[in-house]
Amino acid sequence: MTSDTVPVTTDDAFPAPVWSVDPRTGEHRARVGVESSPADIDRAVRAAAAAAAALADRPRRAALLRAAADHLERDAAQVVAVADAESALGVPRLTGELARTAYQFRAFAEIVDDGAFLDVVIDHADSALGRPDLRRANTPLGVVAVFAAGNFPLAFSVPGGDTASALAAGCPVVVKAHPGHPETGALCARLLRAAAVSVGLPEDVLAVVHGFEAGAALVRHPLTAAVGFTGSVRGGRALHDVAAARPRPIPFHGELGSLNPVVVTPAAAATMADEIGAGLAASFTLGGGQFCVKPGLVLVPAGDPGGVAETPGGARSKPGALEEAVVEAAGRVAATPLLDARMRAAFLAGVRERTALPGVAELLAAGEEPTAGAPLAVRPGVLAVPAALLAEDGPHDLLLEECFGPVTVLAHYRDQAELEAVLARLDGNLTATVRFAADENGEDAAGLLRRLIPLAGRIVVDGWPTGVAVAPAMHHGGPYPAATSVATSVGAGAIGRWLRPVSYQGVPQELLPPELRDGNPLGVPRRVDGRPEGLPGEAPG
Amino acid sequence: MTSDTVPVTTDDAFPAPVWSVDPRTGEHRARVGVESSPADIDRAVRAAAAAAAALADRPRRAALLRAAADHLERDAAQVVAVADAESALGVPRLTGELARTAYQFRAFAEIVDDGAFLDVVIDHADSALGRPDLRRANTPLGVVAVFAAGNFPLAFSVPGGDTASALAAGCPVVVKAHPGHPETGALCARLLRAAAVSVGLPEDVLAVVHGFEAGAALVRHPLTAAVGFTGSVRGGRALHDVAAARPRPIPFHGELGSLNPVVVTPAAAATMADEIGAGLAASFTLGGGQFCVKPGLVLVPAGDPGGVAETPGGARSKPGALEEAVVEAAGRVAATPLLDARMRAAFLAGVRERTALPGVAELLAAGEEPTAGAPLAVRPGVLAVPAALLAEDGPHDLLLEECFGPVTVLAHYRDQAELEAVLARLDGNLTATVRFAADENGEDAAGLLRRLIPLAGRIVVDGWPTGVAVAPAMHHGGPYPAATSVATSVGAGAIGRWLRPVSYQGVPQELLPPELRDGNPLGVPRRVDGRPEGLPGEAPG
What we know:
The structure is a homodimer of 541-residue chains.
Chain A: E1 17-21, E2 28-34, H1 38-55, H2 58-74, H3 76-87, H4 91-114, E3 120-123, E4 134-140, E5 143-147, H5 161-169, E6 173-176, H6 182-198, E7 206-209, H7 212-220, E8 224-230, H8 233-245, E9 252-255, E10 261-264, H9 266-285, E11 297-301, H10 321-331, H11 341-355, E12 361-364, E13 367-368, E14 378-379, E15 381-386, E16 407-413, H12 416-423, E17 429-435, H13 443-452, E18 456-461, E19 499-505, E20 526-528, E21 531-532
Parallel strand pairs in A: 3-20, 5-6, 5-8, 6-7, 8-9, 10-11, 10-17, 11-16, 15-16, 17-18
Antiparallel strand pairs in A: 1-2, 3-4, 4-19, 12-15, 13-14, 20-21
Helix pairs in contact in A: 2-4, 2-6, 3-4, 3-6, 4-5, 9-10
């Protein structure tokens, strides 16, 4: 879901320039700088590593996170304008995204203040058990490399959740900016570095670098301790492999790609075809279909009224009510520019390639549709295919891969065996959704949900996967390629990706980190001798 | 720290036989079977995967863990006798290890009963925030491949912590037996499979396979979902790379190797040379020096009385008091057989290679020393080297690598700069130890501890790293190559390695896992609407 190059004019000399491009028109807006050289990467990572000691001051890094939110909000108009000019996501969406981004920083500031993320456990010496005094707390891993996402110029980019959670953990950050919005990245980096200085921290707690090769060099750098990535399967897998092949492998927390399957039961299709069709259209076209949780494959029953009559060979008779509803609703969605030229080209080619497969019907034709102010806008598409064609290896496997942009595929299953055959061929996903009829909650329904659990990190019933609520119970991740680790990249748990435990055995009080000393001078939540500290029944200490 | 082949006679046909060998004498005791073929691996993993559904029954898997402990204890005499015959670790040590192994199973049974490991979080729908009903719980990953460790035939092998924690998580297990104790592995697998049947579970929740190639095939199998490994850097790294290179990479939780550096401060050497020397001797020779936390490099101050006078070129004058003490105490340690022939050969070659380096003094000569009943026994060794020789790339880097067996290296530092130069060259470790003098607890001491934190998962002050207390505050892991992930392999936290979170959005009560339903019918610990359930101030629900 990312674009990894920007258009460059052929007469530009090395190093390659980094351009900000307007995706509505394809015009080069501004030259942001040049791609970072290996020497630039080395300087950025070493400077970040040198700033780590300053970040060990927990109150100060909480202050940094709050200052980051303040700085973003203070310059919100400029940030949103630049992000919109580079991403075409629109001012309302980006205003909301900036608010969410500032909220994330402040939420992590509270987490830093609270101290529960340190996961402090204290076991006093027990001579009966022959056990020494043992105290454990989490410690930051070191410099974190963050790869900005194309589809969230703020909330998953330079000032995004990976950055906020890593800084909260006490890790300096070097962000590889996304080529689709390099000016936004550079601007946000300036704001975050100014925020650091404003609270007495070195500005090098965060730096931004540009360029595809720079990204790989960043992952390879000996002082890089962990990676956070949001992007395509191809790019993410390549960087995952670089991280794993280092002399000292490092954690790679990547969110790579997700098809987000939806299953519509026969009863649901029979009773709610219009509602489901309209809801699906709204979900798969939201934000230009450029959300990682866009529903990309919808398993619908074959046969009227919910689906479409099929012959075994795939010849279609007439559309069903659900199909008509989704086509009607998606047909009314305004054409929209995509995030950048490469994303747009990949979308158009992806739709073309899928439509050309035998047995695939183009219910609503996606394609170019210039609109006022956006000559590069595209309109959404809806494809349909007999599920039987997806049940075995072959060219139709393409339909089981994410196609970034406003397109979805309806696959018609004739029976449970066909449904199961398709589910068995799916990779991991961020989400899996079921649309049940009103009274479907018996053993069949439970069995279907159990069947989906191995496929996804979030199971959605009678809703749509788009819209990722920021709540403690949210998990944003899933089996590969949805994610390369079991960690969540959204919510409070995201801080755990940048920490590791350290036990202290027999360390005198004076030499312990203050959070581990008797009396709990900093008042962090702790488990002492098997119990939460401060609860009745606590052992002395 | 593992041996990956067993001696085979040259006239044996394919498939290669698996022999149980007596490491005291080198005699082949029994033919345990043959190395597992790819078809064997496929069968074992598929059978394990098919047994996963039965393990979803939480009370039943708690019963399995308790039955496993019971079965081990019931046949303890036989298990200990076989393990001793194959490992030469001795009946007292193995009796204790069996008790610890049974304790681990029962501790994980309690964890399963308690349910906190599910990490249940419930956020009820909030229409003001536009938030749907969201509930999260951990779910098992699937089949776990476990690699048995050479040095713990029980506690880190077929019935060990990886197996117990994976079963506790609800994951079936296929163990690759260690070639040093294949009969113990096969015997324990029979006991665990019988334990499964005794509680109404399929025996295939656990299987054992044999052979080096079998191990790689096990990691590559599409249905293998995660790996637990304890062994050598070479073997572990190779399998780590196999896991990372799969079409769908899987988590690899490996404990590979650790030097376990010890720093003796000048004040400590000056005041406690005898005590430190004797303690060091006891620690590095414990269990034949075959513990993963054996202190393998001891940084001691140069110059009397604590260390040894050095010239810049490395010429030595006379031993210091600490050296004399360690040599004297280690010299009195009885010669001991090592775990297997390959381990023994690697130890002898490793000592030889290290002793041959320029500037290395052999204070106590390790080597072969046949004893009554153990013609293959070896005696411990102590080497010494000027720290300056370790400060730069070169052949002395060998001294910064783990040498499995009863040998340690004293490195004499003349000043803080030399000490720092050596610390800067160390890889990650399970432990890092400091020996302070009685009154050393000022800023210098705190700075030294801070310097060691990036190097290890456990910091030990004024003790020795051998002896891993099983306590909530214990972390057994560390930066690579001590571990390949940030997880602990000892203690309650080990279960988290085999779980991933799943969120349920808008799922009706009847379709939720019972642990997630309103009213908490199974009584597991949960956080509901931001608070621990059942505490005052809880929101209704």
